[in-house]
Amino acid sequence: MLTRNPDLRIAIACYAQDLADEFGRNIRNHITGNDGTDGSLDLGLRIAPDNGAARRWRIAGRRGGVRAVGLTAGLTGKPADAIFIDDPIADLIQANSAAWREVVWGFWTAVANTRLAPGAPVVVILTRWHEDDLVGRLLAAEDAHRWRVINIPAQADHDPAKGETDPLGREPGEYLNSARGRTVEQWEQIRVAVGSRVWNALYQGRPTAPEGDLFERGWWREYTSPRWIVRDDGSYWAINPDEVIQSWDMAFKDTDSSDWVVGQVWARWGLQVYLLDQVRDRMTFVETRKAVRRLAVKWPQATLKLVEDKANGPAVINSLSNTVAGLIPEEPHGSKYARAAAVSPFAEAGQVFLPAPELAPWVGDFIEEHASFPNGRHDDQVDGTSQAINRLLLAPLLAGTLIVEADELDSELDDYEISPI
């Protein structure tokens, strides 16, 4: 970059100052070692003699150069024409520190981003130790489309059926040609030795949240055939359920900006509950109102629509009270964790059914969010689940109003391949 434009002011940031110094020193030494003497390549650049420290040096006679900083240092007052953020998180221990992740995010929002010249490029290079790292937050932001992601996993894990491709043109399951000469067997040994979380982060570039302690992935039951029919008017109609409800978890902002909103459709057959449908997206308040209306039209059986009585919930109910029937505020009791813990035994007992991926492509994210709760970044789907299962199973069972005899289930549900509990 400097050979093309010696006036570029380049900033390099790392988790520690000594690592940043090393980068600055290596670049400086590369320039001084390629000055045309002793038969070396001449880059046409010279380091200013009065400004040549490893962490801060300038090209002689030009304004360009390099400033290398640790994340706790500052760039205040120092404009940048390009910024390279390399390894803002040192390791898994640091990645698990919410405090350090906030330091990294604060450096980007309050320091680096404010020093960028118009049109200046930014390059972030890191190991994806945690889903809530700098890249995770950048890609979750509204301007995520501005970023180009280049991820080359050790083992190709793309899904051609979804139109996904590997950046190197490999077949699914194929390992990288190792610069260290690793064989397939050695790759497999590494994968087993480091465990799934380190493998996904360090080798695949796809971080997973630490396991939670409430919902195991294997607890969920799966159904592969639709539990509904589609009527002539385009609405969806569950086949002879005992109940069908909606469960909504709203955003925290009553503004025009977007935040995560989740709406779910659940049905109960006896003592088994089925997740039939879900919408989840970043929505403004106006978009949320439209989503509630659309789901109400799509599933007319779900006359009861639970809306958590927090965040935007009351405002949504008030604004739709004349157009959407059955919107009921649901006051949450206890913490998110306590509410999820109260309903997780139903999943463990095999009473909660989820649609197969071919019916609902989003179900994988649903399972992963529950598996990582409460350690994951998001919990909006968990909130919707606990609210729905509490209303369908937990509350009526505790009140003694939901009593189902096994003989009744046998005769009533045989046609629908639902096994009584």
UniProtKB/TrEMBL annotation:
It comes from the Bacteria. NCBIfam families: psiM2_ORF9. Coiled coil: none annotated. This is Putative phage terminase large subunit-like protein. It comes from Sphaerisporangium siamense. Gene3D superfamilies: 3.30.420.240. Residues 247-391 form the Terminase large subunit gp17-like C-terminal domain. InterPro entries: Phage_terminase_lsu-like_C, Terminase_6C. Keywords: Viral release from host cell.
